[in-house]
Each structure stands twice: as C-alpha cells, then as structure tokens.
Amino acid sequence: MVVSADSQKIFRKNSRNKHQRVSSYAYSTRRIRLSRKPIPLFLHPFICALFIFSIYINISDFFWQVKSPEYPISNLTLPDEKQSSPQIEKTMKASLDLTTFINLNPNREEKVDYLSLSLYTVRRDDRYSIIAEKFQITLDSLLSANGIEKNGIPEEGSELKIPNMSGIFYVVQKGDTLTSISSLYGIDVENIRQINQLYSTVIHIGDKLFLPGITMDIEELNRIVGNKFLIPSSGTVKNNYGSYLDSTTGLKNYNYGIDIINRKGTAVYAAKDGIIKSTTYNPYFGRVVLMNHNSSFQSMYGSLDSIVVKPGDVVERGDLLGYIGNSGFRSGEHLQFSIFKDKEDVDTLEYIF
Questions:
Q1: How confident is the model over 159-203, as pLDDT tens digits?
Q2: CATH fold of the domain at 236-351
Q3: How far, in Å, are 10, 177, 196, 200, 207 from residue 174 at the CA level?
Q4: Superfamily of domain 117-225
C-alpha cells in the first residue's frame, strides 16, 4: 500500500491535535483537583465540639434507657381497688372533715340524681324478673312503677316503664306530709324533693312519690310472685329447652332448661324458698346444686364454678348458692338452670315470673 506524502502530513497533524486535547484534559483535571480548598481552621473547633456533643447525647440516652425504672402491673393500683396506709387514711379523713367547714370549690355543681322513666318493649321469652335483672333494678321497683299487682307473664309487644334507680312509688294519702312520709320510711325530706323534682313541700292526695331504696313488703311481693320462680342470676337468657343439634360436635343433645350466659364468678341465687337436696359433681352438668321446693317442684343449678351451700341447708329466695362457671361437658361460662315437677323436666321459662 502506497501512501502519499500529503496523506502522511494530514495523519501526523491529526495525531498531534489528538495528543494535545488529551494532555489538555488531563492537565485541566489535575488543576481542578488541586484547586479544592481545605476546611478553614477556625471551623475545626466547632466541628469537634459538635462531634463530641453527639457522642455525649448517644451515651447518655443509652444509660437512661438502661437505668429507667420499671412499673410492673402488680405494683399498679386500679381505680376500684382500695389500698391505703393508716397514715393516708388519716390524712383523707382530715381532708373530708375540713371540707364540711370550707367549700374548696364554691362554683362546683354537685351531682343530684333525679327519677327518670324509660319505656321498654317486651320481647318474646321476657319475664318480669329477667327484665329487672337486665336493667339492674329490683323486681319490686319494676312492679311498683307499672302497677303490677297480680301474677302473670308480660305480654309481648307491650311497654313497661323502667325507673333509673331502685325504689317504690308511694301514693299520697289524706293527712300525709313530706315530713310524715320521711319519718315513716326513714328518708330525708330534701332527698324526696330532689328525686321527685318538687319545688315546694306541698303535696296533694293522689300524688305519686318515688321513694329511692325502699322495698316492697315481702308478703305483698310473695303474693304477686305466687308459686313461680325468679331468675337466679344476671346475664343473657337463652331458652334451649328440648332437643337441639350441637353446632360443635354435630350430635343431638337435650337441654333440660335455660342457659344464663355471663362471666365466671357471677353470683347465683336461690330462685325460690327450699331445702338443698344435694351438691355434687356431674360429668355432664359439672358442679350442681339441687333444691327441693313445695308442690313437688325441684330446681337445678349446673355448670357452677363454686358452691357455698351444703345439703340440708334451708334457704330463702335470693340467698346465695354459688357462682357461675364452665364446669361440665358443655363449654362456655354459663349457668344451667332447670325446673322439674314430680321429677319430670318442664319448660323452665314457663315457671319463671
């Protein structure tokens, strides 16, 4: 291959230009690197101080976490617990005595309870004692508020008046005054006025006054309830009487009464006067109390957690028998309550007032 002299000149010229561009780039790069200025000396103390301070913060934070006090639940006092030393009780007593003479907050309005009545629509399988337990009032409060004076079953769909507190209504008679009623029932006159929102002490014959905390005469209550049983415990009532299919096992079972669903430890009371026949443990019903009543009736309280009576004890309606549990074959915390007549099981709900 023959290359002309002109071609050789052009090639040498291009090679020389390329070498010059590369050298210029390398020189400019070195110059840029050399032109980077160091940190001024007067900033060095500030940077060192900032670094030392960050190390101090991290170390102190670590030791604070290590040495921070722990508060286990066992050392906490819940609001409903009453734990105090004699010295604290003495101080509290002195404070209470002082407030009787000095009003520490004259602008504070004291809470006053007033009677209020709400309406409740009766549902299927409702009974008077079940409704009273549902609203946490006494049975005689419910009966007095609705003027119920005879045995019966509340009609489904009817409305009942529910007072917001326990007590009975008193019909003012001729010659009655607030002072005489107060003396008769042991209630302060001012309390009667506040509860009934009376603006004066003048009352009239036929007026109905609500007397808080007063109970109906026991003989009158027994007359109204008659030979029926009361619900023995509070909770959700499920009428499972008869044959049913267990959703857990898929087996066909038979329930001798009703189930009252509530938490373990809920009190169970005698549904009627009677004598404790036996207290035993049954593989199916768990811990059981069996009672004998007049008129050939028996009642059974099963699935109990504990029992406080013994065979032969004579108990009255409302006496404590034991506490709800989950003993026995059927799972869940509940009370198995059943009524038997002449040793034959009956629909328990039909015999509850």
A1: 999 999 999 999 999 999 999 999 999 999 999 999 999 988 899
A2: Glucose Permease (Domain IIA) (2.70.70)
A3: 141, 9, 19, 18, 11
A4: LysM domain (3.10.350.10)
